[in-house]
Design brief:
The complex is a heterodimer of chains A (about 525) and B (about 500). Chain A has about 525 residues and is of the alpha/beta class. Chain A contains 18 helices and 11 strands. Chain A has one domain: Amidase signature (AS) domain (Amidase signature (AS) enzymes, Alpha-Beta Complex), CATH 3.90.1300.10. In chain A, about 40% of the residues lie in helices and about 10% in strands. The radius of gyration of chain A is 22 Å and the shape is globular. In chain B, the strands form 4 sheets. Chain B has a 9-stranded mixed beta sheet with strand order 2-6-7-10-1-11-12-13-14. The chains are: A alpha/beta (about 525), B alpha+beta (about 500).
Chain lengths: ~525, ~500
Amino acid sequence: MTENNELIRLSAAALAEKLAAREITAVEVTQAYLDRIAAVDGKVHAFLHVNADEALAVAAEVDAIRAAGGAAAEELHVLAGVPIAVKDLIVTIGQPTTAGSKILEGWHSPYDATVVERLRAAKMPILGKTNLDEFAMGSSTEHSAYGPTHNPWDLDRIPGGSGGGSAAAVAAFEAPLALGTDTGGSIRQPGAVTGTVGVKPTYGGVSRYGAIAMASSLDQIGPVSRTVLDSALLHQVIGGHDPRDSTSLPDPLEDLVAAARTGNVEGMKIGIIKELHGEGYQAGVENRFNESLELLKGAGAEIVEVSCPNFKYALGAYYLIMPSEASSNLAKFDGVRYGLRVLPEQGPLTIERVMGATRAAGFGDEVKRRIILGTYALSAGYYDAYYGSAQKVRTLIQRDFDAAFEKADVLISPTAPTTAFKLGEKLNDPLAMYLNDVATIPANMAGVPGLSLPGGLADEDGLPVGIQLLAPARQDARLYRVGAVLESLLEAQWGGPLLDKAPSLTDSAVSSHGGSH
Amino acid sequence: MTDATLSFEEAMDKYDPVLGFEVHVELNTKTKMFSSAPNVFGDEPNTNVNEVDLGMPGVLPVVNKTAIESSIKIGLALNCKIAEKCRFARKNYFYPDTPKNFQTSQYDEPIAYDGYLDIELSDGTVFRVEIERAHMEEDAGKLTHMGGATGRIQGADYSLVDYNRSGVPLVEIVTKPIEGAGSRAPELAKAYVAAVREIVKNLGVSDAKMERGNVRCDANVSLRPHGRERFGIRSETKNVNSLRAVEHAVRYEIQRHAAVLDSGEPVIQETRHWHEDTRTTTSGRAKSDADDYRYFPEPDLVPITASREWVEELRATLPEPPAARRKRLQADWGYSDLEFRDVVNAGVMDEIEETIAAGATATVARKWWMGEIVGRAKNADVDPGQLGVNPATIVELNKMVEDGKINNKMASEVLDGVLAGEGTPAEIVEKRGLAVVSDDGPLLEAIDAALAAQPGVADKIRGGKIQAIGAIVGAVMKATRGQADAGRVKELILERLGVEG
């Protein structure tokens, strides 16, 4: 058990090295993670489905290839045999895909998402599917139809959202890597509140084919991990052009792993976004943010201040564009071809009424709220005032970014204004919930890449704080270059990874209601 | 319930019709508009589909480049401008034939716009129809409503849906309001749709078979009192799927609108269903400009850019325009102006071209189509091309006549057999025992009997009045029940009477 505990705490990069050196086997690693899931997921609830048999079979295949040696072993991907968890918004053959919704309960996709095909090609065992807010709509994972995920740092708190399952799985050592999706911060904000790393790539950098769409022009799949290098390794697997996604960039992928390995900020200009800190940000968050700035300065970076005056409209515009697209994307869930079908309890049995009854029963409140908002925003007579104006704001935000990147190579801000709040605290206050994404949304609106990494623990509550780095479109490598430097400076200060400070979860002294101090 | 109508003449006396057409053309690309599934007609339901056509969770569309090329070609042939940059939009509505519950269609940014088509009417008058736009969209699946009396969704026990057609590329060609056609409106309607069909067929971008729905027409009709500028309220008759039906539907709607207006009632803006059997329309769905499809730009697709170089490359591949083609065909076939116009008006120009390509002479092809087939089509109330005669049949029949195996009368009978599905011409000749009697023995017997019965005629022929031979030939044909070769009979009579032919 001790040995296995060591295995699960290794980074993906370290696992990959040991696997390649045949010091450990992929089956041992996969089994260690499956054991950890069995031990702690009852408390964390990061997984909606555990895929033990297939994961072990893939691991065994990798071990057999390595044991046989020769060309096939040489050709194995560097991450072959390193397990991964997949957000349940991404379709997979052989496992259910629910999108966290009752309307897809029991549905199995007949096809694999492009990113899943790439995981399979790299022979990475897929541990299972992780929990999320229904259709990725939320910032706390409380909107999952299958119950909330708990933050491994404090089981009474939210793990962020929508990708709380992926972030919590990685933070609780239930997986070394996970896939997330980020429409307004769903990878980065959970990363911030769970003390993990999450990256939203440049829009078009990773194929969306097979990610169940919330808002097509904002959605992006990205890596979730415990280290910056691990995210780069995973990003390298899933990124690159896909002819099945028209919005996929044709550019060849940069060497992101090299960027993470050769991190350097000497002479770089790092821009603080005036509008994304200070008022409205928790003091402990602000302190950790300032600390990171000092560390970067000490490493030779020049800190400059930039202003993005239109960011103050970003949240409002986002909550028009996202629900508009979502209202159309979610129209296909009607009970006609797949998923839940509910017949009306009384009255005539017409197709409209079956669709209505199905959607009424199958969708949760937050999904309905956004469908209604979006339907309204796109309506004749309102389109120009709502959707049209929001698109103009989007252009202004892009211009703000363009101007900011004239002055700085990367931008920096806290990832979220607060640390993890209590489960249930904001469930009945959608506007307070939406404010969690105020710092992450601008990147989605402009299509630029963003990375969140742990910045330490807030003084007042001892919970993780996230630092967000933003780079110009197609310059994802800069995030890894700067992120790796900041991570190593911070870890030197802490004396090890931040997650070493998290509760063990298997220690019976830690009750599910205990605080973190 | 039958709607009241005015006679067409009275309607024309009182009102001025304004027309408008939306013609949907199904493109014959190998794959669908946004997916790699095959674009094939008539297969087992729900076999030519993949996850994209079924609207599975997570799928994304990818635009078919050939469909874009075809659309640009159609735009160019309709004398349109081609947009340098254009987008698709989503048209949102819930209906089970649309698997995503939105249709991906161009909306305010069509690929082709501002064109025209010159339409030649039966008397040679040229009428210019202005084209507002030609835009790309995807077809919906096909619903079959079971158990109801009408085949409509209302009253059906259940409905079957076939998504094979879902995602088939369509180009919708929309005219500007067509004013000034007057009493020639029905004729213009038919000629316009025929012209569009001819264009897409010659471009090779569509199979252009109306009976298969490759070309479908929605006809808008409104009336206004003579001299008034403002348009009346229009009806839109959906899916009028033959050239004759287009003409009839426009005529009927003019007559119906006139009766409504005469009664002092307003015309209701609505869609109408066309009924081929009664040649009437019935009320469909109320349609107002307020129908809210919540259009917005399709975020899963990037804009389409058509560089000027590409457009010019495509322009260079266009076949000759219809008017030039007609000129060339008339010259090639050696038809008089009148003969050629009759062929065009009968709608058999393409058919004659195909028959000539199959090996018939221009004269033979015209004789069969104009002499035999057009009349039968009229009786059957279908377009001649839809009657089911294929060019090879005509060539085969004609060869039998030329070889003296059958005569023209028999050939016509054999054609009836072919159309009745009795088999190939050879099989029908065999089955019906229609071979020409070529054994001289029985013919000579019949000739001798006929000459004996009409001695006066025989004398006239002997005396040099050869044209009198008809009476004897007729009697012989009668005696042989039409199975004799009339040419041979004539030779034998002259031989018998010792007269030089």
